[in-house]
Amino acid sequence: MSFRFLHTSDWHLGQSFHGQSRHVEHAAFLDWLLGQLKTLAPDALLIAGDLFDVVNPSLAAQELLYDFIVRAHEQDAALEIVMIAGNHDSGSRIELPAALLARLKTHALGRVRWVDDSADGGDAHSLDCQHLLVPLHDRDGKRRALCLAVPFLRPAEVTGLSSGEQAEQEGEAAGKAERTRSEAYRDGVARVHQQLVSAARAARQPGEALIAMGHAHMRDGEVSENSERPILMGGEEALSTSLFPDDIAYVALGHLHRPQRVGGEERIRYCGTPLAMDFSEVDYGHRILDVTLNNESLEKVTEHRVPCHVALTRVGPAPLAEITTQLTALVAEAQADLEPTRWPWLEVTVQLEAPLIDLRARIEALLEGAPLRLIKLVTRYPAPSAEHRAPKGVKLDELGPMGLFERHYRATYDSEPDPALIEDFAQLLEEVEAARETRLEGEPATRPARKADKAASIDKTASADKAKGGQA
Fold it and tell me: CB of 221 within 8 A of CB of 270?
């Protein structure tokens, strides 16, 4: 028997894009997703973390999520939704309305839980596996799959060990170098998955598929240029696909924004973001995944491209003359009838030989009146030649402010600063020095008073000591 679900993640509701709200774009995506749920009629929807962009999302962002869940249930009462917290989310906030969401056939998992089973002969610190195991049903109400829903695991959450296990590990570690933080994190994550997989195998029913869902950085996963927030420094937290044994039919992942298979495996996939989170993601081909299982095995994965509601357009990098030509053509081709909320976001990267003070004014003049929104202007300069590269071994106090300024200018722009710029900097130095002298001139007026007070205090102490001596 077949079982179908949609895999999506990394909605980042409430994202501020270079200071601009993307509420309209997110609302358009959720409307489209509702249409897909109605047309495709899957048995379940899996949302693999980063529902919100920040741990304290705005009311508008929260309204988007919960309004979507309500409308999805009203549209199809048989649909089951499973959502987990990502590293951008607050696990507690995601779980807070869990009891209410359960009435809408929505499972919200934000944190792992540890329980004390010592009274029953178990460990004093065991993973609450039942909390993370979600049975999934087909449209006739029959169980078809068991979802291992693992929210983003923070380092502090995966160190739960029984005292016996802790002592054993400490004994094994004797004489060895101290484990790094990343090693401890990976070991803790592996321990969570091992316990959960064992519990799932014991709980599964005949013919029932195992589906894993997680929010993590997998080893060999391709990260975006600017977007994903690192979990640990240096990417050393990357996890191995060995966490997911072969009897898990499909692994629905969130965190990396580029849609991809992990380790070349069809069953282990990131669906990516539905919207480009940065200009570096404009060519990702954003999508949701339509997954079909046949009994315990993966049958097929179909991709559904998410329509772009607001375009992200990059111009450059190129010299200013070429940028001017490109922007002129872009303005001529722009759709004048677009409503302002759908005007494309624009990033312009200009290659310059030296700073241009009125660059933004020139670019904005080219775009004046056009249905385009310039939200990012980047300047690039030539790499410094050997002649202008900052020499090593030079002490800053030997250069002085003017020498330091000239050195930085040469190293940044690979040219000598303009005489007028040097004159302006010299004038600025004079103003700063004058202000400093004015401030210091006021200090002597208070210093004598402090010295006099101190002298008076000493005289008073000496007189008291002398009086005491006389009394003795």
Answer: yes
Alpha-carbon distances of 37 from 82, 102, 464, rounded to whole Å = 14, 19, 91
Give the phi and the psi of residue 20 in degrees, each rounded to 5: -110, 140
Distance CA 33, CA 286 (A): 13
d(CA 354, CA 376): 19
Amino acid at 6: L
Q: Count Cβ atoms within 10 A of the Cβ of residue 397 and give its class: 0-12 exposed, 13-18 middle, 19 or more buried.
A: exposed
Over residues 319-334, mean pLDDT: 96
pLDDT tens digits for range 287-314: 999 999 999 999 999 999 999 999 999 9
Residue 211 main-chain phi, psi, to 5 deg: -120, 125
Look at residue 189 in the predicted model and tell me its pLDDT.
92
How far is 310 from 24, CA to CA, in rounded Å?
9
Gap between the Cα atoms of 35 and 42, Å rounded: 12
Q: SS3 string of the chain?
A: CEEEEEEECCCCECCEECCEECHHHHHHHHHHHHHHHHHHCCCEEEECCCCECCCCCCHHHHHHHHHHHHHHHHHCCCCEEEEECCCCCCHHHHHCCHHHHHCCCEEEECCCCEECCHHHCCCCCEECHHHHEEEEECCCCCEEEEEEEECCCCHHHCCCCCHHHHHHHHHHHCCCCCCCHHHHHHHHHHHHHHHHHHHHHHHCCCCCEEEEEEECCECCCCCCCCCCCCCCHHHCCCECHHHCCCCCCEEEEECCCCCEEECCEEEEEECCCCCCCCHHHCCCCCEEEEEEEECCEEEEEEEEECCCCCCEEEEEEEEHHHHHHHHHHHHHHCCCCCCHHHCCEEEEEEECCCCCCCHHHHHHHHHCCCCCEEEEEEEECCCCCCCCCCCCCCCHHHHHHHHHHHHHHHHHHCCCCCHHHHHHHHHHHHHHHHHHHHHHHCCCCCHHHHHHHHHHHHHHHHHHHHHHHHHC
* 314, 302 contact by CB (below 8 A): no
Q: Which two tokens stand for residue 334?
A: 């722009």
Q: How far is CA 138 from CA 41, 65, 135, 142, 208, in A?
A: 11, 24, 10, 6, 11
Over residues 157-181, the pLDDT tens digits come to: 886 444 344 445 544 544 443 457 7
Give the C-alpha separation, 331 to 276, whole Å: 23
Of 352 and 418, the one with more pLDDT: 352
Residue 144 confidence (pLDDT) above 90? yes
Helices 419-441 and 396-413 meet at what angle, rounded to 10? Answer: 140
Q: What pLDDT score does 460 carry?
A: 47
